[in-house]
Write a structure and sequence with these properties.
This protein has 567 residues and is an all-alpha fold. It has two domains: 6-105, no CATH class; 112-253 and 263-429 and 521-545, no CATH class. 55% of the residues lie in helices and 2% in strands. Helix 8 crosses helix 22 (510-545), helix 11 crosses helix 12 and helix 14 runs antiparallel to helix 15 (340-357).
């Protein structure tokens, strides 16, 4: 028997953990072009010959220590899958460091996306309109808890034929046919398992990257949301974390005498759960903002230029920022994509949350969608669904299975389509990014980390600062600058390497993954408790300083308050 030295065994185990494998093609780099049509053959040769996304891994020892947001293995795998099923040559587009293999079958054109900017959340908008005309009920004021109000009406008479009861009944009793709460729980576990890198992805890639869209910046500036006072901006960032904690923190038995040995899967997101209610309250918040901006007399909203505030494309893009961008952020840090089954589970989770948030989503096997526009014949984007839908699908003229596609490919291509359509930064984008990165100390450190997640081209366009060496001759100032630069680079790289090791270990070993989920779930629960206490104090202060609020309609709902449109 051949004895393998202990050091060699350790090296083999590390190589297996990181998924090292040999490359079958030496040159698999896709040529960068601004916008051109290339042959299917040339693109196929540039795509790695992995049969599944799980086969994607590190190409060399050097790639173990490299962080590249523009040359991802999963992108090559998706391109190969698309190219194998189309007959017309794709258009290959380079856009701020993102290489898009654009295909009409899988992607959305500008002409296809533009109509969605004229559609808001009609179901919720009509509900608020009804409530505003009901003087005895809950109004549309900043402290009115619409969800609690309509829940009481539903409990009083669940068969009442009123808009309030019918809305609540729709989401309380009718779950989309594709929802599997066991899968939803697995999606939650994906978020909890990779919580550190997921949180970084949401901040540095989704939030900062989202500010590259001028239309979204217009809404934020008009409502003074995430602009102005730094402490208030931090509070609103914590609100986003609070929403996630409501959805993902494990629910505990309400009574000490509860003998149930196991909590239901995804209990917080089941009808009536804390996360379920939080998602509906965020939806009400969006509708209040939309209504306020459109009715504002101090600042006229330009619908032709910016579309309806928080429209269907904005909602879909935001949902993809919380789903696909997190998956991409994990891949950037880990150096390889998440396993295919974990990606499916995570996308299913956000598809369900998107349905609650008012994103038009397929609900039934016959193709009926949840929030179809009554004024236009638009198929739902259903960004985390199975495939791109056409107008025949929206008309329900064909008996087809609506999940006969691949949600990974559809969600990624939908995000690429919206990036090409919307991501064109202006000065307002740069100002908002600068404000966000300067909320706390160590700005240059966080800026360098942000550049890793966004890529250099988009970071340069957003004027995100970077550490550089300024040579001023053989002077003490030059030496000090060089040492500062090296220290910053060391801490940034050390932080990224720590994240990579932590993420890959969680990805590779079931024992580590279980411990990570349990530990991060405890952190989420503690954060949720602290956030609820903070919000109770904040709402109390706001009520005390507000003189024109009807005290009968106020509540402690943290998502009830909205900002008055800025004049």
């Amino acid at each position: 028997m051949i004895r393998i030295p202990r050091d060699t065994k350790i090296l083999i185990e590390i190589a297996m953990m990181f998924g090292l494998r040999r490359r079958h093609h030496k040159d698999d780099t896709v040529p960068r072009r601004s916008s051109s049509v290339v042959s299917i053959t040339s693109l196929s040769q540039s795509v790695d010959d992995s049969t599944t996304i799980d086969d994607c891994g590190y190409s060399s020892i050097g790639s173990l220590f490299r962080f590249d947001s523009s040359n991802l293995q999963s992108t090559k795998w998706r391109n190969k899958q698309m190219l194998s099923s189309i007959t017309t040559p794709p258009t290959y587009i380079h856009h701020f460091g993102v290489e898009v293999c654009f295909t009409e079958q899988f992607h959305y054109t500008k002409a296809e996306l533009e109509p969605y900017r004229k559609v808001g959340d009609e179901e919720m908008d009509e509900l608020l309109q009804y409530l505003s005309q009901n003087k005895d009920g809950c109004g549309c004021g900043p402290f009115d808890d619409v969800i609690s109000y309509i829940a009481k009406e539903y409990q009083a008479n669940c068969d009442a034929d009123t808009p309030t009861v019918q809305f609540y009944k729709h989401y309380y009793e009718n779950i989309p046919y594709w929802v599997d709460f066991e899968q939803i729980q697995r999606g939650i576990d994906v978020f909890l398992a990779y919580l550190p890198v997921a949180g970084c992805s949401l901040f540095y890639r989704s939030l900062v990257g989202g500010f590259s869209i001028p239309e979204i910046v217009e809404v934020l500036q008009a409502t003074q949301y995430l602009v102005g006072d730094k402490e208030k901006s931090v509070e609103r960032l914590l609100d986003t974390g609070g929403f996630l904690a409501c959805c993902f923190a494990p629910s505990l038995p309400t009574a000490k005498t509860d003998t149930t040995s196991e909590v239901q899967s995804a209990s917080s997101l089941r009808p009536g759960g804390k996360g379920w209610e939080a998602a509906l309250r965020v939806r009400v918040l969006h509708a209040k903002v939309r209504r306020s901006l459109l009715q504002s007399k101090r600042r006229v909203w330009d619908v032709e230029t910016n579309g309806i505030p928080i429209n269907q494309e904005d909602l879909a893009a935001t949902l993809l920022a919380f789903s696909v961008n997190v998956l991409l952020g994990i891949e950037i840090i880990a150096g390889k994509p998440l396993p295919e089954n974990e990606q499916y589970d995570y996308l299913a989770l956000w598809r369900y949350i998107g349905w609650l948030l008012g994103v038009d989503t397929v609900e039934t096997e016959e193709g009926r969608s949840s929030n179809a526009s009554k004024h236009s014949n638009l198929p739902p984007i259903d960004p985390c669904g199975g495939r791109k839908l056409g107008k025949t699908d929206a008309n329900c003229q064909e008996d087809i299975l609506f999940d006969d596609g691949n949600s990974i490919i559809h969600s990624y291509t939908a995000l690429e389509s919206m990036i090409l359509h919307l991501l064109h930064p202006k000065k307002s984008s740069c100002d908002l990014v600068s404000h966000l990165l300067n909320l706390r100390r160590f700005v240059i450190f966080r800026s360098e980390v942000c550049r890793t997640f966004l890529g250099q081209e988009l970071s340069d366009e957003l004027d995100i600062s970077r550490s550089t060496i300024k040579w001023k001759g053989l002077k003490w100032e030059t030496f000090n600058n060089v040492m500062t630069h090296l220290v910053i680079k060391f801490f940034v790289y050390s932080f990224l390497i720590f994240l990579r090791v932590y993420t890959v270990m969680t990805m590779s070993f079931s024992w580590t993954r279980r411990r990570a989920i349990k530990f991060h779930a405890v952190l989420e629960t503690k954060f949720l408790i602290g956030w609820q206490q903070m919000n109770a104090k904040r709402v109390t202060r706001a009520k005390a300083t507000t003189k024109t609020i009807d005290t009968k309609s106020i509540s402690n709902c943290p998502f009830s308050m909205i900002m008055t449109p800025n004049s």
